[in-house]
Amino acid sequence: MNWVEFGTIAVAHLFAVASPGPDFAIVLRQTLKNGSFAGLWSSAGVAAGIGLHVTYCLLGVALLIASSPTLFLVLKMGAAVLLVILGGQSLYGAVREFKRRRETSEVDAEVFVSEAEQPSMSLARRAFLTGFTTNGLNPKATLFFLALFSVVIDPATGFAQQTAYGLYLVIATFAWFACLALLVGRPRVRLVVLSAAPVIDSLMGLILWVIAAQLLS
């Protein structure tokens, strides 16, 4: 194991995964909406998206995507459309809650908890797919992993060792977002955060739309 190489990859990944972005917004929204169960499955979806990026980098497909303007444009368009839809859902949820609070003249975060969808395989599938598509279609992730596997990792590094790096990236990504889901999903924390749910939903919706605009610029 080349520990210097691994350390560089680990630090670069830490900064990338910790920076606010669509993955963070999706896991946070899923957790606030339906609890830690949905947040954990969204985290697993994001980690699976990382696995997808790692796989095609190992196979050399990332270079093909990055070198094909048409293919890369299609990927960017798909990611932007997805982020616009997800951002619209967040803003719609914020508008509904602002309206409910205006009509009832009260802020009852417990209503959100009681109305949250109960854990089920259907919820798990939707949360997983949301996390997977959000990360898997992100062209910035494509470029990030292409840079890791073509610049940071020495060409002489064996396939098995590169695969080990990839497994670390998948596991570390899931661990990071799982911790976020478990923290925010705690009843007391969730109730406090949900008291500002409309504002948070509005901000997340706008952030997702800004990211979508950046992808198309």
From TrEMBL:
It is a multi-pass membrane protein. InterPro entries: LeuE-type (IPR001123). Coiled coil: none annotated. The chain crosses the membrane at residues 6-28, 40-65, 71-92, 141-159, 165-184, 191-212. GO terms for molecular function: amino acid transmembrane transporter activity. It comes from the Bacteria. It is found in: Cell membrane. GO terms for cellular component: plasma membrane. Its main location: membrane. Keywords: Cell membrane, Membrane, Transmembrane, Transmembrane helix. This is Lysine transporter LysE.
